[in-house]
Amino acid sequence: MRIVCDTNILISGILFGGKPRKILHLCSSGTLVNCISPDILKEVEEVLLRPKFGLHEEQVYEIIQLFRNTFTLVTPESRLSVITADPDDNRILEAAHAAKANAIISDDAHFLKGASIYCRERIQVQGERSAETGVYRQYMRIASTAQQSKCIAEQINRGALDLDAWNNPPVVSAETFLIKFI
């Protein structure tokens, strides 16, 4: 299963343990494939260098190298501007899209508030529709209601929705991911 861990999961897993660390162990053992982008690595580095964590530059460098050696690096081809409350969260969506991730793991309120699943919405944008292929540019949005999220989660749990074929990765907390998917 291909996943993208939000920065808060990566930081918590390295520094504090708990369920985020269990997810990182599953990634390092090969049970899960965590995909990471250069932008995510940059954000992790910036956060770890904050004085409140008390880490030296060498320690942060070693953590970044560990992530580079353990996770699959993806390079998003396009930039998204879907989440306005915290624009850095768009880098997670971009990585998930580039990785064709099955799930996004986050304990970030911007992802988890209200609906827990991001869906793709096909919107025809004037001048961006390919007449030959009929392909529409894809945008991401939060499922409009918690009911939609519940419905999609139930389909996944029943096996009615194949995560490997589904192009809309659920966004779940570390705890929910470990309970529902592992």
Provide structural commentary.
It is a single chain. With 182 residues, the protein is an alpha/beta fold. It has one domain (2-181): Rossmann fold (3-Layer(aba) Sandwich). It is 45% helix and 14% strand. The chain has 8 helices and 7 strands. It has helices at residues 7-15, 18-28, 38-48, 57-70, 89-99, 109-112, 146-158, 174-181; strands at 2-5, 33-36, 72-73, 103-105, 118-122, 138-142, 171-172. The strands form 2 sheets. The protein has a 5-stranded parallel beta sheet with strand order 3-2-1-4-7, with helices on both faces. A two-stranded antiparallel sheet has the order 5-6. α1 (7-15) crosses α2 (18-28). The longest helix has 14 residues, at 57-70. The termini are close together. Mean pLDDT is 74; it is low at 114-149 and 160-166.
List keywords for this structure.
alpha/beta; Rossmann fold; 7 strands; 182 residues; globular; 5-stranded parallel beta sheet
Radius of gyration over C-alpha positions, nearest whole angstrom: 17 Å
Question: What is the CATH topology descriptor?
Answer: Rossmann fold
Give the overall silhouette. globular
List how many beta strands DSSP finds. Answer: 7
Major β-sheet profile: 5 strands, parallel
Structural class based on helices, strands and sheet pairing? alpha/beta
Q: What's the number of domains?
A: 1
Uncertain residue segments: 114-149, 160-166
Count, helices: 8
- State the CATH superfamily name: 5'-nuclease
Query: In the CATH hierarchy, what is the architecture at level 2?
Result: 3-Layer(aba) Sandwich
> Which range does the strand content fall in?
5-15%
Distance between the termini: 10 Å
- Classified by CATH, the class is Alpha Beta
Fraction of residues in H or I helices: 40-55%
Order of helices and strands: EHHEHHEHEHEEHEH
What's the rounded overall pLDDT mean? 74
Major β-sheet strand ordering: 3-2-1-4-7
